[in-house]
Design a protein that fits this description.
Blueprint lengths: L12 E5 L3 H11 L4 E5 L2 H9 L6 E4 L8 H10 L8 E5 L4 H9 L4 E4 L4 H98 L6 H13 L2 H33 L7 E3 L1 H17 L2 E6 L6 E3 L1 H18 L4 E10 L2 E8 L29 H11 L3 E7 L3 E9 L10
Parallel strand pairs: 1-2, 1-3, 3-4, 4-5, 7-9
Antiparallel strand pairs: 6-8, 9-10, 10-12, 11-12
Bound molecules: adenosine-5'-triphosphate and magnesium ion.
Magnesium ion binds next to helix 9.
């Protein structure tokens, strides 16, 4: 058997449409060894067959037919998404260039004059089927690639969210350690003061007990009086009189420090609300500084130069997160001992908060990448590279922007600009 006839194209289905049954019979017999052949003697019948199974892979279409002509048939095929991709070859006795042009402009892939050499017809059919297969393959590949891109995009988003989550947890852990340290300190000296006071009270009660016993002695002997004086001396009652109020004042101060830290923590987190409101940026900066003070104080001195700024409409706890990220970055850029300056000011309808450091600065080639998620120059486990990207998102949400200037080896300056009234609030009344 001719190997050609065994090829994959043999599986293809060709629909022959012609009102002359002699043509159908000649073409049909010639093509039958190569393809599955369907025949239709009218346009209407052809349209019925394309809706059934097997769906034709290619249509040989006569132009001049009674009722619906070939141009009308192709018009309907091209208008239907289910049949638009079936290649159509016109096989016609109309031999004018104009007719050929019309056929091709309607979407036919080829135009063959009758009568034609059957082997040429076969070659043209093969070419068109190969083209169709290639097109179908490309379409499948495209669909596969699109699905793959979509799947990977979703996968990336899931990883991104997971990283954000672990970044948040790490930040909370770090903060918690800092806060524990800050609270531990006053708690430590309050509890040591209570121990001292306990000892003092025992001494005071010993003197009081001795006084009580002396009161029962009648008459009071000189010896008892002498003993009392000596006991008072020994227990340093005069010293206790001065030290006890000091210990109490110190303990009160320690407890109020703990209370302030907890209040700052509440302010920082704004745990109870996440609404837009008129916020005081200086208050936000101060409570943020108190929260991360522990992280900063061993490395740098913080200098505050607050200007006159109005309150702004904002999400205060989110802005605090921005300040925290900038301050921690500044501190991390300082290797041993350095300075951080926090300045604020106002221009037109905007306020700005600037955090500058004299740390190691940023290489010029890194400047354009700072706000990319996951861009970090810090060692593994130290930075995730999300701080600035999160901060930029928050600032953009407020209708603001972050400006950066830096000199390698000299330090960096991050200036956050925020509109007093973000755009979504519309103009002030
Ligand atoms: N003040 C600064 N001085 C020097 N380099 C900085 C400063 N702020 C940011 N950078 C550079 O920008 C990079 C990205 O900062 P970002 O805050 O986004 O991530 P990170 O600090 O590396 O990690 P993360 O904030 O997630 O812990 C840093 O790795 C660092 O190279
Ligand atoms: Mg950071």
């Amino acid at each position: 058997m001719d190997p050609d006839k065994q090829s994959a194209e043999r599986q293809a289905t060709i629909l022959l449409v012609d009102d002359e049954s002699i043509n159908l019979s000649v073409f049909g017999q010639f093509l039958a060894p190569y393809y599955q052949v369907l025949v239709a003697t009218s346009g209407q019948r052809a349209l019925q067959l394309v809706r059934g199974t097997p769906k034709p892979d290619l249509i040989l279409l006569d132009v001049m037919m009674p009722g619906m002509d070939g141009y009308q048939v192709i018009g309907q095929l091209k208008a239907n998404p289910k049949t638009v991709d079936i290649p159509v070859i016109f096989v016609t006795a109309l031999t004018s260039d104009l007719e050929e042009e019309r056929g091709l402009s309607l979407g036919a892939v080829d135009y063959i004059y009758k009568p034609c050499h059957l082997s040429i017809l076969l070659a043209r059919i093969k070419t068109q089927l190969e083209l169709k297969n290639a097109r179908d393959w490309l379409k499948d590949q495209n669909a596969y690639l699109e699905a793959e891109v979509q799947r990977r995009h979703q996968e990336n988003q899931a990883v991104h969210l997971q990283l954000l989550q672990s970044e948040k947890l790490a930040a909370i852990g770090q903060l918690a350690a800092g806060i524990a340290h800050e609270i531990n300190n006053p708690i430590g000296f309050v509890s040591s003061n209570l121990n001292t006071l306990n000892g003092y009270l025992r001494d005071v009660f010993a003197v009081l007990d001795a006084c009580g016993a002396a009161l029962d002695e009648k008459p009071l002997s000189d010896q008892t009086l002498q003993n009392l004086r000596e006991l008072k001396q020994a227990k340093q009652i005069d010293y206790l009189r001065g030290d006890i109020p000091e210990l109490i004042a110190e303990s009160r101060e320690g407890l109020s420090r703990v209370r302030d830290i907890i209040q700052d923590l509440k302010d920082f987190a704004h745990a109870d609300k996440n609404d837009w409101e008129l916020g005081d940026l200086h208050k936000g900066l101060d409570s943020t500084l108190n929260i991360i003070g522990n992280e900063l104080k061993y490395r740098c001195t913080v200098h505050k130069q607050y200007g006159e700024i109005p309150q702004i409409y904002c999400l205060p706890s989110q802005l605090n997160q921005v300040f925290m990220n900038l301050l921690i970055n500044a501190a991390q850029a300082i290797e041993s001992k350095g300075d951080i300056h926090i300045r604020t000011g106002c221009a037109d309808q905007n306020v700005w908060v600037e955090i500058s450091d004299n740390g190691n600065g940023i290489a010029p080639e890194n400047l354009p990448r700072l706000f990319e998620p996951f861009f970090t120059t810090k060692p593994l486990g130290k930075g995730t590279g999300l701080g600035l990207s999160i901060s930029q998102n928050i600032v953009r949400k407020h209708g603001g922007r972050i400006e950066v200037t830096s000199q390698l080896g000299q330090g960096s300056r991050f200036r956050v600009w925020l509109p007093i009234r973000p755009p979504e609030f519309g103009p002030a009344e």
